[in-house]
Amino acid sequence: MKGIGVIGLGYWGPLLVRNFSQLLGPGLRVCCDRDPAQLDNIAKTYPGVRLTRNFEEVLTDPEVGAVAIATPAHTHYQLVKQALLANKSVLVEKPMTTSVEEAEELVDLARRQGQVLMVDHVYIYSPAVRKIKELLDAGELGQLLYIDSVRINLGLFRRDVNVVWDLAPHDLAIIDHLVGRLPRSVATFGAVHAGQGMEDVAYLNLDFGRGLIANAHVNWLSPVKIRHMIVAGDRKSLVFNDLYPDEPVRVYDSGVRVREESVDERRRILVECRTGDVLSPYIPRIEPLRAVAQHFVECVETGQTPITDGAAGLRIVRLLEAAERSIKAQGGRITL
Fold this sequence. Notes:
The protein has 336 residues and is of the alpha/beta class. The protein is 34% helix and 32% strand.
């Protein structure tokens, strides 16, 4: 493939630079940021990479065939659009855009331009989530009953998006990947406490129908950091704890058993608790972002559709926009 450029060198951008440099060597052609200090930091570690403050220079470089965009969310739409129009494939940080209308336009544009559009939903590429998906697809958990997620910390307060748009894309992307379909409705409660005018605590509820629900709690104000998800089926359940690198996934052979009994010509429902073994499957220690970078390169080279393509990004933006509308409606349920 042609070279790649990284746009935006704040927090996430340098991580992308490191991974693409290790994967491609001189194939990492250029890094771009408006802040000279950020460019200086890259120059110290990667002296062979060309640096620029001008995005147009990246777009007009014939040796750059793809770009990775790690800029604030409100800039994604314009930057991705310009890159696609310049016939560059794009890897963009989550969320893909800040509106459904913009996301739909970019998905259509990427298709018309024949370019790869991939969203950096990094957790989908983590070995732990891959193992969870493998267990689900193999029927180990049985029928899904509910998913419960907590992603809280004493946070990095954002000025461009609220806590839902900042943290919830991770959980929504995992839920979307595991369930494989959009929920039929979303209800969200959120509150502003820190004076930024942005919700810093929120609770999301997704109703998928047929008894399946998913909940996500996201929070910038928590005194403790928690990255915890329960995925419960009618056969087994599992707990994914991203802060336990040695045992990120534990599978519980526990649940309830419902049976009927006839007593004096009447039927009664008996619910029995069942407990069994707890297993910790082997999870290889592979950096998820390395897998993201590798998958993007492979998709650009082969033309294959990314696992987290533009359509996946659009689904998450659709959920985020519905959550935003629900917050403004005081938790009113939004039908999708």
